[in-house]
Amino acid sequence: MTDVESYIYGFEGTQREILIYLHHYFIDELNLICKMRYKIPFYDQKSWICYLNAIKNGHVELGFPRGNELSNEQGILIVKDRKMVRSLIFENVKTIPFQPLTEIMHEALLLDQVKPYSFKNRN
After folding, report:
1. At a CB cut-off of 8 Å and minimum separation 6, what does 98 contact?
2. 98 in a domain, yes or no?
3. 45 within domain boundaries
4. What is the rounded distance in angstroms from the CA atom of residue 13 to the CA atom of residue 35?
5. What is the C-alpha to C-alpha distance for residues 65 and 83, in angstroms, rounded to an integer?
6. Is residue 123 part of a domain?
7. How confident is the model at residue 10 (pLDDT cuts 50, 70, 90)?
8. Which residues contact 52 (CB under 8 A, 6 or more apart)?
């Protein structure tokens, strides 16, 4: 079992269902690479695309580290008090807005193709 699978199967019920559903969507449909970072699964193409985080209220957050660069034409990305990250919160698999999510994912993938994120050394 991989670290990501261990993370996913460490949860029960709807959180596990959401995590499995999105994980398979990212891996099987979008061909993203998954790595554990900061104790949660991150999904990459050339650079970070998104991450999954099971949150305390029993929901799952899908976060976009470069969310501030996405158009949010769908109007569903949540800002919170963050400069860059934008996210979506899912209560169960049935509440996942698949069409808008697909549009956001394709925009994030295009952004990564055109302008991969680069970490700047802050010395």
Report:
1. none
2. yes
3. yes
4. 23
5. 10
6. no
7. very high
8. 19, 22, 23, 40, 41, 43, 60, 61, 62, 63
Nearest alpha carbon to residue 105 among 58, 61, 70: 70
For 104, the 3-state DSSP assignment is: helix
Taking the C-alpha atoms of residue 80 and residue 71, their distance in angstroms, rounded to an integer, is 16
For residue 25, give the CATH number of its domain.
Answer: 3.90.1150.200
The owner of tokens 């199967």 is 9
Evaluate if pTM is beyond 0.85: yes
Domain for residue 122, yes or no? Answer: no
Give residue 93's domain range: 3-114
- Residue-level pLDDT at 123: 42
| Total domains in the fold of the chain | 1
| Contact indicator for 36, 7 with CB cutoff of 8 Å | yes
Question: Rounded distance, CA 41 to CA 50, Å?
Answer: 9
